[in-house]
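User: Show me a protein chain along with its predicted structure.
Assistant: Here is one chain, sequence first, then structure tokens.
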Amino acid sequence: MGSVYRIGEFAKRVGRSVSTVRRWEAEGRITARRLPSGQRYFDDSDVRRVLQPGFDAARRKVVVYCRVSSPGQKPDLASQVAAMQQFCLARGLAVDEWISEVGGGLDLRRKEFLALMDAVDRGEVATLVVAHKDRLARFGFDFLEHVAARGGCEIVVANQESLSPQQELVDDLLAIVGSFSGRLDGLRRYEKELKGADLTLEGDR
């Protein structure tokens, strides 16, 4: 569920004065919701209607995101998609978009993942469905859930452990070790080049 704002908080979020918000309401440009006490309030969809003209909360999507770490796991990706189809069918979720991606769970620069999180941040995704938390990201799921909630998006986790292979964690960690080792080798080569340059300069004196 997204955030709820009182009129002063809402005015601050949209960069207007409280009197302007009251005028908009009187003109019918926006409609405030009311608590049982009668106090008016607004939510994230109201903020987006002001900041993103044309925003339609009714057109927000249900998206399923599936991922494996390496090209060799494409059969596992197909199995993951099939399992999620059954899961969504059982939950009565009408899916608007299916996203499949090959990329390590520790890499947060995945093309499809970034595009998805941008859409979540813009408020375009109502529900995001994943087989397991690490299908979205190996670490930092709680933060991603916070970002999603801020965009009014619910993340539904099927918690199908069989679709979160332990070997993938090993592969992801080995990729980090390999990258770190490569950087160390580069530093060693750079140090040798510097020492060689120093010796040359000393010989020229």
